[in-house]
Design goal:
heterodimer, A: 110 residues, alpha+beta, three-stranded antiparallel beta sheet, two-stranded parallel ribbon, 5 strands, globular, B: 904 residues, six-stranded mixed beta barrel, 30 helices, 25 strands, elongated
């Protein structure tokens, strides 16, 4: 654990999961691996915390879950983005972009 | 926005699904998390660590697995429901462990909620149900006012006609009057007495109820000064007499010796909708010139407002018309327009308020007792609550548990309450004097909704006391000492004291009310009537006016009628045969039965002078045959009874009551004095004085009475009085079972007056007890409730004292060991009970003083503030409280101080 790791702002984990799943259906462990790799381990996401988030997204109908078989014939629960999830991802990404731009402008970073 | 809605909808569906598949989801969650950990461990293993170490590392990276699981469950959206379910399970287990306690609470609440559900059912049936007519809010009742008196009176015919013809706000104005009549087939066979309603044809339009068969009669069929010959029958008579045969339309029937053709049948809903009285036949109200001049106030006027017209506008219009009519006639007249619904229910207000008061008190008592029990149980369980608090359940969670328990108990009570409500309505209320439409006592969907909501409210209310205790409880204190040694905190003791004081107040309120009603009942029952009705049978014969009258001109602007001597002759013949009947010891004829019916209050004059218009003494006038006083055992004080000398051609005579004699002649004997009665206006010589009697059992002051012989009735009288001469009641005393002579009596009547339906023979003392029934009922119902209330309050006191004794056993033992005598202990106990007893008594007296106003109408011979009744009620309450204190204290004192101390 290094000090450079940053904690996720509230609500962004959902957005990250949606983005990750927009590429292909994945199971929980794969999602957490992908998050770690893509962020170059800079984001401090305890692995377990993606599970409540996954259930929350499933509840809202943004992702759908299905049991399937993974590599070497093991059962795994695969998550997939729904149509509604895609729309939500588009909307949230847009929002996020606007937010970061605005914050950047104020902080005069650009 | 659309996105949000869709997500919300998914959310809801998901929660419901997860609730149903709870176990599956739980298994899946375990499998999913295990799979994750396995994969993570594999990555470590591939780096060369041992399997055991790999799993440890995997779990570390993962985070606290229990926390994650719980968080996931929360996200699933069912965590709240699941924890409530576990609270419910815990509560049910607790109830099953103490079934007696649970049953006691369930039954107490069932009683408290049940009577309230019953009261709601009545309120729903009466106050919340609209009249069964289309656009019923446009139906109004128009009443008249006379002079400065603003109280609504029935109208006269001229007023009705004025409202009908001169106002502009009504779509239809109608009136009607009840008349009993003989209904027979066209040939005069199959006679029965029916209730007819003489009504204006506009009634059908005003109410908005058309006949279910045939048609209504029309204005054209109600000729002025003519005779109507069409009738509409009700569904009830159609079924009963015509077996529902549709060919009844066009059939001809004989009503009071006049032929009518049946043109229509009214639906069943019509009969039920008119206040209480069953109607059989509707005939057109014929307004002949006599009626149009009539001044009798007996006509209720119903009208339908034009759409968009307010009651106030109608009131103004009708009142203006009345004032003009009054000006034309030299009277001050006015009109009151009220919605029919409001007018019909205005007399229900007070009985419903009394009922509401009683059920509220019962609920209060039930709730306070149950509250006490729940609080005691919570205190007893505080160690358990403390443990749960210590392992992390918040106070809110503990309070939720307690609330769920009280809600479940209220639910149990609510289920049982439907049975209590049914019994209350069908056994208790149905026997009472409150006349209610049948539909109003049905336990329907609305009542069920009320019962559920009411039970929930009671449940929350009950949960508040233990919840307040937990909210403020000092768990640190509970931890620090053994559970038995902890005293009840002072505020809990105060709370229980308040509960018990409330109970004492409520019970005392009911006790005072019951006391006043019992007082009333006893006073009525021992009130001397002035005669003896035991063993006297009676039946009434009504001679049809149509057959025995003939117009003979007019007097004082009223039609004057010749009175046929036939009814009197027939009555005399029936009377003669009754006396000769085997088994009858005495018989007489009278127009109104004293004690049961009041004769008309009539102005009288003394001597030969004219009767003064105003301020003339008044007396009730009865027309009797000889033997009347003997039959009813009314002692003759002076002079003689009527006899054969008092024939139509003999000197006119009268007998007066003692009070009348004393009022008019002081101590002198009135025998030989002359007296005149307004309806007769011929001087009569007084031949006797009879003891006073009461018009009915609830008459307060004795009214003066005059008796005149049946043989000396006038031969002419004005139309409004004519009924007096055609109604004869036969009274006879029998040695054997009075009803055994019934067949003989029917034969006599049928012989003398053929074609008459059988007469209704009844026992006068039974009529009398029926007249007292309302009082019997009120007194017994209120006494029952007061007894229950007193018992509940005593149980409440007992509970508090027993609890305090148990809590303070150690203190008491130490005091006794240090030399305190029994007397000191008693003083301590009564000090403890004294303050809440005193509070309860003061509040109870205040409550009684406020509530007895409501039952004032049912009181007789006793004021609502009768001091002896209050004193007795207070003493009874003190006695009950003392009894409840003595039992636990004596038990406490029997135990030796040493054993009490050892037990700690």
């Amino acid at each position: 654990m290094t000090d450079e790791r940053i904690e996720l702002p509230q609500g962004t984990l959902d957005l990250l999961i949606l983005k990750t799943l927009s590429l292909e259906p994945m199971h929980g462990w794969a999602i957490s691996e992908r998050l770690r790799q893509v962020s170059h381990a800079a984001l401090q996401v305890p692995q377990g915390s993606i599970y409540p988030a996954l259930h929350r997204l499933e509840r809202r109908g943004l992702i759908a879950a299905e049991w399937g078989t993974s590599d070497n014939n093991r059962k795994a629960k695969y998550y997939e983005l729904t149509r509604l999830g895609r729309k939500r991802l588009a909307a949230e990404s847009d929002q996020w972009a606007k937010l970061t731009t605005a914050v950047g402008l104020v902080l005069d970073l650009n | 926005m659309w996105l949000e809605l869709q997500e919300r909808w998914n959310d809801l569906c998901y929660r419901v699904r997860s609730l149903a598949r709870r176990d599956d989801l739980e298994r899946e969650l375990h499998a999913e998390l295990d799979a994750h950990l396995d994969r993570e461990a594999e990555t470590y293993e591939r780096r060369g660590v041992t399997a055991e170490e790999a799993h440890r590392l995997a779990r570390m990276t993962f985070g606290g697995i229990e926390g994650i699981r719980e968080a996931t469950r929360v996200e699933r959206g069912t965590a709240l429901i699941e924890s409530i379910a576990s609270d419910v399970r815990r509560a049910v287990l607790g109830f099953r462990a103490s079934p007696g306690w649970t049953a006691a609470i369930g039954l107490t609440l069932a009683l408290g909620i049940g009577v309230n559900v019953a009261a709601f059912t009545i309120v729903k049936g009466t106050l919340l149900t609209p009249l069964p007519y289309p656009d019923a809010d446009r139906l109004v009742l128009i009443s008249a006012t006379v002079g400065d008196d603003a109280s609504p009176l029935p109208a006269t015919v001229p007023e009705y006609v004025a409202w009908r013809d001169r106002t502009h706000v009504f779509e239809a104005v109608a009136t009607a009057g009840y008349v009993k009549a003989d209904l027979a087939a066209e040939d005069g066979s199959a006679v029965e007495v029916v209730q007819t309603l003489e009504c204006s044809p506009s009634l059908f339009g005003a109410l908005g109820i058309p006949p279910e068969l045939g048609r209504a009669f029309t204005e054209a069929e109600t000729p002025i000064n003519g005779r109507a010959d069409v009738a509409v029958i009700t569904h009830g008579l159609w079924e009963r007499r015509f077996h529902g045969d549709p060919r009844v339309i066009g059939q001809r029937v004989r009503i009071d010796d006049h032929i009518y053709a049946i043109v229509g049948v009214m639906p069943a809903s019509f009969a039920e909708s008119i206040s209480g009285t069953t109607i059989d036949v509707l005939v057109p109200l014929v307004l002949n010139s006599n009626r149009l001049k009539g001044s009798a106030r007996g006509w209720p006027v119903i009208a339908r407002l034009k759409p968009g017209t307010s009651v106030d506008e109608a009131q103004a219009d009708a009142n203006a018309v009345s004032s003009r009519l009054g000006a034309e006639r030299g009277e001050r007249l006015g009109a009151i327009v009220r919605q029919l619904w409001t007018a019909q229910r205005s007399n229900l207000g007070r009985p419903l308020a009394v009922l509401g008061g009683i059920v509220a008190v019962v609920l209060l008592l039930a709730c306070t007792n149950v509250s006490g029990l729940l609080l005691a149980r919570t205190i007893a369980r505080r160690a358990d609550l403390f443990v749960r608090w210590a392992i992390g359940a918040g106070r809110a969670r503990l309070i939720r548990q307690l609330l769920i328990e009280s809600l479940l108990l209220a639910g149990l009570g609510g289920c049982l309450s439907m049975a209590v409500a049914w019994v209350t309505l069908h056994v208790w209320i149905a026997r009472g004097p409150l006349v209610l439409p049948a539909a109003s006592t049905a336990l329907d969907g609305r009542v069920t909704v009320f019962a559920v909501a009411f039970s929930m409210a009671v449940g929350v209310l009950l949960g508040l006391t233990p919840a307040a205790y937990v909210w403020r409880a000092d768990f640190g204190e509970a931890r620090g000492s053994s559970s038995r040694a902890v005293w009840e905190p002072r505020r809990v003791r105060r709370l229980r004291g308040v509960l018990v004081a409330t109970q004492i107040a409520a019970a005392l309120t009911l006790l005072v009310n019951a006391g006043l009603l019992v007082n009333t009942f006893v006073r009525l029952a021992v009130n001397p009537l002035g005669g003896d009705l035991a063993g006297v049978s009676a039946f009434t014969v009504q001679f049809a006016p149509a057959r025995y009258r003939a117009f003979a001109g007019s007097r004082d602007g009223l039609p004057l009628l010749d009175i046929s001597p036939e009814p009197a002759r027939k009555a005399a013949e029936i009377w003669r045969r009754l006396r000769a009947m085997p088994g009858a010891s005495d018989a007489a004829v009278v127009n109104h039965v004293p004690f049961v019916q009041a004769g008309p209050l009539t102005p009288i004059g003394v001597g030969d002078g004219a009767i003064a218009d105003a301020g003339a003494p008044r007396a009730r006038v009865y027309v009797v045959t000889p033997h009347f006083f003997a039959t009813l055992r009314m002692p003759l004080v002076r002079g003689r009874d009527f006899d054969a000398r008092d024939a139509p051609d003999g000197p006119l005579v009268a007998i007066v009551s003692e009070t009348l004699a004393r009022t008019l002649w002081g101590g002198r004997s009135p025998i030989g004095e002359r007296i005149r009665v307004a309806t007769d206006d011929r001087p009569r010589a007084i031949v006797g004085v009879v003891a006073d009697s009461r018009v009915n059992p609830q008459e307060r002051a004795v009214t003066p009475m005059i008796y005149t012989p049946l043989g000396q009735q006038p031969t002419q009288d004005v139309a409004p009085n004519i009924g007096e001469y055609l109604l004869m009641t036969f009274v006879f005393r029998t040695a054997r079972d009075p009803l055994a002579t019934a067949a003989a009596v029917q034969t006599i009547v049928a012989d003398v007056d053929p074609g008459r339906p059988p007469v209704d023979i009844h026992l006068l003392d039974r009529d009398l007890s029926r007249a007292l029934e309302a009082w019997t009922y009120f007194a017994s119902a209120m006494t029952t409730f007061a007894a229950i209330a007193m018992l509940l309050a005593a149980i409440g006191v007992y509970g508090v004292v027993a609890h305090a004794v148990a809590q303070r056993a150690r203190e008491l033992a130490i005091r006794r060991a240090l030399g305190a005598g029994h007397l000191d202990i008693w003083r301590l106990a009564f000090n403890y009970v004294g303050w809440f007893l005193a509070c309860g008594l003061v509040c109870g007296i205040a409550g009684a003083a406020a509530s007895t106003r409501l039952i004032q109408g049912a009181l007789w011979g006793v004021t609502p503030t009768d001091a002896p009744t209050y004193t007795i009620a207070v003493l009874l309450m003190i006695a009950a409280t003392c009894a409840a204190v003595v039992v636990p204290i004596r038990r406490g004192l029997r135990e030796s101080p040493a054993s009490a101390l050892r037990a700690e």
